[in-house]
């Protein structure tokens, strides 16, 4: 259930992540989540309550640096990526003794998902639906930022909201597939859908569909072969992606041979 | 009656660099103004300031008697230089034109939007591009669609930043036909940045010749004089020839 919800949310925001070239942002935020989780373990509280605000702060900070300087997005992400992991390492070292919890966050486990996680995921999905009006604004600014600005859209404000949503999506995804693999939910289904789509809305819907199928297939394989679910879901997503590249690649080649349209 | 555009000592700085220096001019409603000047002379910045994208450091800019940001977005039809768009974005010509109608990327193009967009595309001779993915369009084709997008909302002021760049002669003809039609119908005030002096001379009613500050302003024949051009472009040492209606103007000779 949690997997399916995250599949939908991840693809919805993943379409923007892929189209804006923010794949590394997902990775950076996942590692920011590590800092948050480490802090929560140190304080002996529910990881989600610390990781969510911690990651949101990092997402806002990354966006802030991007807007304030001419530095590329990858550079801004890289800085906060390292900073969060450094913080996480310090928090972990302060906590005496080995914590099995930390391991489950690194690689994720569907079995570690609690009802609290499920509620939070549901709330995020609900919020995403409430913010449905934002989709057209985000998409417009993704296509041509200057046009959106000229049309008086609050592009900067929208960027922050989008970054916050991506941050929360990453944190709840971390529980399922882990810090190292969570970017897959944002990037792979949307990238796969991009290969087939002629419109951005179709890309969003197709990404969600692909993602749901991959979660179901991945969990099934994980159960049958008794290997970690995070990995099997990523295998399913990757298989879908490479099959799609093979398919659409051939289509493009044949396109070269067709006579130009008059 | 309020002038359509009124700039008084308009000064704009970008990152502490003086880009517009005390620009003063005003034009009445319904004119076709061409902005001419060398590269880096602040033409695009002036257009963006009229749109409200840049704020003046000092001086004032009024559009239809108001500060640009006090006007609704659909008062402006803006055709930018094609620099900021994402060419890999999955979208079609019709969807792009539809953004001109609703200021949002459409989740789905309604029948009403479809009809309005189609009509605008026909005006610029780009109806066959309606379903084309944006990623497969050439620069000139995109320019036409951007123009269709700008006129689809029937704006009071249309601002164009080198709209004919990368266009073939047929495309150019469509652009100026659409602009001239709207101008003659008294529907719009038109402001166009161009490097084509012949176009400025033949299509515009007014010309603003600038190089950070105003070098000349007025009727095309009075503004685009050899002396003014030399002042604006400096001693470049190259010869610029105006094809029609002009004697040869040799700059820096």
Write the layout of secondary structure elements.
The complex is a heterodimer of chains A (262) and B (253).
Chain A: H1 2-19, H2 23-43, H3 47-68, H4 73-94, H5 100-107, H6 115-130, H7 132-143, H8 145-150, H9 155-177, H10 183-196, H11 200-225, H12 229-257
Chain B: E1 5-14, E2 17-27, E3 32-36, H1 43-51, E4 58-63, E5 76-79, H2 93-102, H3 111-123, H4 139-152, E6 157-161, H5 169-184, E7 189-193, H6 197-203, E8 206-211, E9 213-218, H7 220-223, H8 226-233, E10 239-240, E11 249-250
Parallel strand pairs in B: 3-7, 3-8, 5-6, 6-7
Antiparallel strand pairs in B: 1-2, 1-4, 8-9, 10-11
Structure, described:
The complex is a heterodimer of chains A (262) and B (253). Chain A has a domain at 2-182: ABC transporter involved in vitamin B12 uptake, BtuC (Orthogonal Bundle), CATH 1.10.3470.10. Chain A has helices at residues 2-19, 23-43, 47-68, 73-94, 100-107, 115-130, 132-143, 145-150, 155-177, 183-196, 200-225, 229-257. By secondary structure, chain A is mainly alpha-helical. Chain B has a single domain, classed as P-loop containing nucleotide triphosphate hydrolases (Rossmann fold, 3-Layer(aba) Sandwich), CATH 3.40.50.300. Chain B has helices at residues 43-51, 93-102, 111-123, 139-152, 169-184, 197-203, 220-223, 226-233; strands spanning 5-14, 17-27, 32-36, 58-63, 76-79, 157-161, 189-193, 206-211, 213-218, 239-240, 249-250. The longest helix of chain B has 16 residues, at 169-184. Classes of the chains: A mainly alpha (262), B alpha/beta (253). The A-B interface holds A 19, 135-137, 139-140, 142-153, 194, 197-203 and B 51-53, 69, 72-73, 76, 78, 80, 83-86, 88-92, 95-96, 99, 102-108, 133-134.
């Amino acid at each position: 259930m949690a997997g399916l919800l995250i599949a939908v949310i991840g693809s919805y925001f993943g379409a923007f992540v892929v189209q804006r070239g923010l794949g590394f942002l997902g990775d950076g935020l996942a590692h920011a989540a590590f800092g948050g989780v480490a802090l929560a373990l140190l304080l002996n509280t529910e990881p989600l309550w610390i990781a969510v605000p911690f990651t949101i702060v990092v997402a806002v900070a990354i966006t802030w640096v991007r807007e304030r300087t001419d530095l590329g997005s990858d550079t801004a992400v890289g800085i906060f990526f390292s900073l969060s992991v450094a913080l996480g390492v310090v928090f972990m070292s302060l906590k005496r003794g080995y914590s099995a919890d930390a391991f489950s966050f690194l690689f994720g486990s569907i079995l570690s998902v609690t009802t609290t996680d499920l509620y939070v995921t549901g709330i995020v999905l609900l919020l995403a639906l409430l913010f449905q009006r934002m989709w057209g604004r985000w998409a417009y600014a993704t296509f041509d930022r200057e046009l959106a600005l000229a049309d008086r859209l609050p592009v900067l404000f929208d960027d922050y909201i989008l970054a916050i949503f991506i941050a929360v999506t990453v944190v709840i995804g971390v529980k399922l597939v882990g810090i190292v693999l969570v970017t897959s939910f944002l990037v792979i289904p949307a990238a796969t859908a991009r290969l087939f789509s002629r419109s951005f809305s179709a890309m969003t819907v197709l990404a969600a569909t692909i993602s749901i199928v991959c979660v179901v297939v991945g969990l099934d394989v994980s159960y049958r072969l008794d290997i970690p679910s995070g990995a099997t879901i990523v295998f399913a997503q990757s298989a879908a992606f490479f099959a799609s590249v093979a398919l659409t690649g051939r289509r493009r080649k044949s396109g070269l041979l067709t006579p130009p349209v008059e | 009656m309020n002038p359509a555009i009124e700039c008084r000592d308009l000064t704009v700085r970008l990152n502490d660099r003086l880009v517009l220096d005390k620009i003063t001019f005003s034009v009445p409603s319904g004119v076709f103004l061409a902005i001419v000047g060398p590269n880096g002379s602040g033409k695009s910045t002036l257009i963006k300031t009229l749109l409200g994208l840049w704020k003046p450091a000092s001086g004032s800019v009024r559009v239809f008697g108001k500060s640009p940001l006090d006007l609704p977005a659909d008062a402006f039809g803006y055709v930018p230089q094609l620099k900021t768009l994402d060419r890999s974005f999955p979208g079609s010509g019709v969807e792009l034109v539809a953004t001109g109608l609703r200021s949002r990327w459409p989740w789905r193009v309604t029948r009403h939007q479809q009809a309005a967009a189609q009509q605008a595309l026909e005006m610029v001779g780009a109806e066959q591009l309606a379903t084309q993915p944006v990623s497969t369009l050439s620069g000139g084709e995109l320019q036409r669609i951007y123009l269709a997008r700008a006129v689809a909302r029937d704006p009071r002021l249309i601002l164009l930043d080198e709209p004919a760049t990368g266009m073939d002669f047929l495309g150019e003809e469509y652009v100026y036909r659409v602009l001239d039609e709207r101008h003659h119908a008294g529907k719009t005030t038109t402001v166009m940045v161009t490097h084509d002096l012949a176009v400025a001379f033949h299509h515009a009613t007014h010309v603003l010749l600038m190089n950070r500050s105003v070098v000349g302003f007025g009727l095309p024949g009075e503004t685009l004089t050899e002396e003014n051009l030399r002042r604006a472009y400096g001693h470049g040492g190259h010869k610029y020839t105006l094809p029609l209606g002009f004697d040869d103007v040799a700059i820096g000779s």
